[in-house]
Amino acid sequence: MRRNALLSVSDKTDLLPFARVLAEAGHTLLSTGGTARALRDGGLEVVDVSAFTGAPEMMDGRVKTLHPRIHGGILGLRDAHAQEAQEHGIEWIDVVVVNLYPFEATAASGAPWDEVIENIDIGGPSMVRSAAKNHASVTIVTSPSDYARVGEAIRAGEVPLSLRRELALAAFRHTARYDATISSWFAREAGLDHELPAETALPLTRIQSLRYGENPHQSAAFYGDGDPTPRSLARMRQHQGKELSYNNLADLDGAVRAVFEHEPPAAVVIKHANPCGSAVAHGPTQAFLDALSADPVSAYGGIVAFNRPVDGDTVAAIKRSKTFFEVVAAPGFTADALERLATRENLRVIELPADFGQGRPAGRDAKRVMGGWLVQDWDIAAPVELKVVTKRAPTEAEERALRFAWATCRSVKSNAITLATATEEGAVSNGVGAGQMSRVDSVRLAVSKATRPVPGSVLASDAFFPFADGLQVAAEAGVRAVIQPGGSIRDEEVIAAADAAGIAMVFTGVRHFRH
Prior knowledge:
Number of domains: 3
Number of strands: 21
Structural class: alpha/beta
Mean pLDDT: 91
């Protein structure tokens, strides 16, 4: 019985050299469509699948490899099914080289629904899974990156079982990601992604391996979900500097979440996933200076992010500050800015997509826990109506600072308290209390971290005050206005404490825990 290799690929990178290895090793090449044409154009003899099966391609190519002579040749057990195969004229297929229709690229191109549907591969995944299941006898190759080592093994006489198992695992992962990508697109485009599904999968592709995780003893990698929506760190571009670490990427995520909470030009300095300084102003340079002044000590070794493109003047301000930053990120840099930043060789300069602030992140937010995942909708800012609950309403400047503090507070680890002060150009944070077990301690911490006079500041709390003690600490420090969700059984006590101190307080009715 002759040795057969079936080749049907969308990505034809390095196909011809590998196919020549197969032919030289005595394999008959079976193929279809564009792959067959590419092989013939390369001077190789090819048997069309339709000739091999005795059945024509039909239904505009939707049905061509779905045939017993194909799947029987791949799936059959070489000993147990030999007689049955002979009775039905089935020849064994020993090598399957398949990668799938470019569904993801077609969907990302904005193609119409029908065209995207036609790029859902059916025969390809079926052959890949069949070959992977029968890897005891069949070599399945789904990536051109594996051609070299498989070809070397074939030249040596045999692909070892250990390599066939490795290739089978890669094949199952490949089809799992392919199906997950399709289901994600289908749910979104069909308007069926409003509920948490009973079953789901994450279509992840490794973007880069990382030196280690949060600590040197942990291995790590950065995976992208392949979704074409604007707000994706997988679409960022690194201009210079060392490779991003696990902690850099985690902090970068916190930085862009925080800075794109603000509509005016803003800058945020992140340290250990929390904003130690943030500000909005008329432009990025002043926003940076104000954000840095909020906590210049904690800013050392942090990440600074902008929601506007960065120019040479902003870079000059960064350099004058003499503050060591790990990363500078923005949705664009002028040529002058990049030239000035180039003098700091180790500084990681990250350009976000220009449209990064538009729309929502793809899919849902997820957090790994032992044995499973916690999945939720993204906590995306929504316009809130401020309900004045005290005798005194906030002034115009206080309300501006309150709205800024509320947007900043949403990016702080709970329990979260942020102090803020109105400026001529916008607002600036003035002390952050993050991650404390009691809210009153978060208030004390925020007050202790203030770099500007606290009297006259405003305060934001990510959740309600369960007791009046936190409000009283703020009042004693000189806070003049407070924004919080409300909803405590002791709201009346807290409101009374605010009235007694002459504090204006507003409720949002929305909580923003971040764990």
